[in-house]
Specification:
Layout lengths: L4 H12 L4 E6 L6 H8 L6 E4 L11 H15 L11 H14 L6 E6 L1 H4 L6 H12 L6 E7 L2 H9 L11 E4 L5 H10 L6 H11 L3 H4 L8 H10 L8 H7 L5 H11 L6 E2 H7 L6 H12 L3 E4 L10 E4 L2 H10 L9 H5 L3 H16 L2 H8 L6 E8 L7 E9 L3 E8 L9 H17 L5 E8 L14 E3 L1 H4 L2
Helix pairs in contact: 3-4, 4-6, 7-15, 9-16, 9-18, 16-18
Length: about 475
């Protein structure tokens, strides 16, 4: 298995404990939650069940279909002389009987996948699961129940942060994140895909380190050919993924997509108030839940831009797949199956790479801090855009504000060669340092930092940057 060393150790330790464990694993759709459990507990799962996607309404009703499917799983695992349960209370009672009947004292692992899908409207699922755990399961010292779900907001609200009967019952939680660049490189190597680091970064700009998406890459094709096969060819693998992504995870998919598509239009994002105004939406409960759901699922991040108060926090779209899809795929008017091969050098794509590389850097702050030698320093990260009014306008790609009275002013440049500082750009950097210093305490020092692909070409102006970070640093 690529990566996941920390998560594997945690799960193995929990498996060896001498008490009942209720483990919640959550993360973005396609990030590899099920694969992780299957690999760690191969041959050790006593009972497993996966909820059915609620996308397709069945004539019998979703509750009936889910209960019948659960009953089929019980039968596969050996339950006898029972009829399909009429409620989730009955279903979990049948599971208790099954587990009790085969209990030989060894560790029993119950794996319930896509748990949020089981909680259909008016089904009473959460209350039944609460009864299963509190009345019976938590007293079985050899029982380990693993629950997974891609609907992160449901996992957080109904289980991990539950204020009712399940309050404090989850004994361990694991949030599974997408691969970083180092893990992406290891993944491609394991598949025999000979991508350079330059190509791997570009693939991250499109797929965001999602293992399931990366698995579509063909070792016999170039990166550009692969992208055409995945996004633009007839029957492309991820052509319909954008809509499925939201419909399968969120209760209000259209409202969620409206927020995502608004945030996409501005790199630094918008305030909550602006989002409500632009979408003509009530600034109330639904908007709060939708924004929190997007944050919990790693599609959006909430941050305070430099120089603003905490009341002016912004919501920024950071999901690489969504950003790429909305930029190039959603509004495609032609069926050009070689779109990426034929247009990879056009100005629109070159400009997109610049913005997309900034997003890659935001996802690799830990690696950037390590390269700067400040891993142990508390920091906050943001962008800074100063509107041009009576003064000069300015935009800084990334500011790392440090508790050791320093700020790294980062310029992010995606180039196919060493970056060259011109005389004009040198003066621009000096002016930005001056303007930023005016906004900071006199105790704070500003360090100009270049984050680029291959490095900085030495010339009479390269001293504009006191530190340079390259691809190799991001792949740590």
């Amino acid at each position: 298995m690529i990566g996941r060393e920390k998560e594997i150790k945690e799960l193995e330790k929990l498996y060896s404990s001498k008490q009942a464990e209720l483990v919640a694993i959550y993360g973005r759709r396609r990030v590899g939650k099920t694969y992780l459990v299957d690999e760690v507990f191969q041959g050790k799962i006593t009972f497993r069940h996966a909820g059915l996607s609620p996308l397709d309404e069945e004539p019998k009703g979703l509750l009936r279909v889910q209960l019948d499917h659960f009953y089929n799983s019980l039968r596969l695992h050996g339950i006898e002389s029972e009829k399909s349960p009429d409620s989730w209370l009955d279903a979990f009672f049948m599971l208790e009987k099954l587990l009790q009947g085969i209990d030989d004292g060894s560790r029993q692992v119950v794996f319930l996948d896509e748990l949020p899908w089981l909680d259909t409207p008016r089904s009473g699922f959460v209350r039944a699961f609460e009864g299963f755990w509190n009345t019976w399961a938590c007293h079985r010292k050899n029982l380990m129940v693993i629950i997974c779900g891609s609907a992160n907001s449901w996992m957080m609200n109904e289980l991990i942060n539950n204020h009712g009967g399940l309050y404090g019952r989850v004994t361990h939680e694991i949030k599974l994140s997408p691969f970083n660049l180092f893990e992406c490189e290891e993944f491609y190597k394991s598949k025999g895909i000979p991508f350079s680091r330059y190509d791997i970064v570009q693939s991250y700009m499109m797929l965001g380190g999602i293992p399931y998406y990366m698995g579509y890459m063909n070792e016999d094709l170039s990166l550009a050919q692969n992208i055409d096969q995945i996004f633009f060819a007839k029957g492309a693998k991820l052509k319909l993924e954008y809509d499925r992504l939201f419909e399968s995870v969120f209760k209000r998919p259209e409202a969620i997509k409206a927020i995502v598509e608004l945030l996409y239009t501005r790199n630094m994002g918008y305030t909550r108030k602006t989002i409500a105004e632009r979408l003509n939406a009530s600034d109330g409960g639904h908007l709060t839940k939708d924004l929190n759901a997007l944050i919990a699922s790693d599609f959006v991040v909430r941050y305070v831009p430099f120089g603003l108060s905490k009341k002016e926090d912004h919501y920024k779209l950071i999901d690489s797949f969504c950003l790429f899809y909305l930029y190039f795929v959603k509004n495609q008017t032609t069926n050009n199956k070689r779109f990426w091969q034929q247009n990879s050098s056009m100005p629109q794509v070159v400009a997109w790479r610049g913005y997309a590389f900034e997003n890659v850097c935001f996802h690799h702050i830990d690696q950037i801090k390590e390269a700067l030698g400040i891993s142990g320093v508390i920091t906050s990260e943001s962008a800074w855009t100063k509107k041009a009014d009576d003064e000069e306008g300015m935009q800084i790609d990334l500011l790392i504000s440090r508790k050791d009275n320093a700020v790294n002013m980062c310029e992010i440049k995606f180039y196919s060669d060493d970056f060259v500082v011109s005389k004009d750009y040198y003066r621009t950097i000096l002016r930005r340092i001056e303007m930023l210093s005016e906004k900071l305490s006199s105790k704070m020092s500003v360090y100009s930092t270049l984050i680029t692909t291959y490095g900085l070409k030495k010339n009479e102006y390269s001293g504009a940057f006191v530190k340079t970070i390259t691809f190799d640093d991001l792949f740590r």
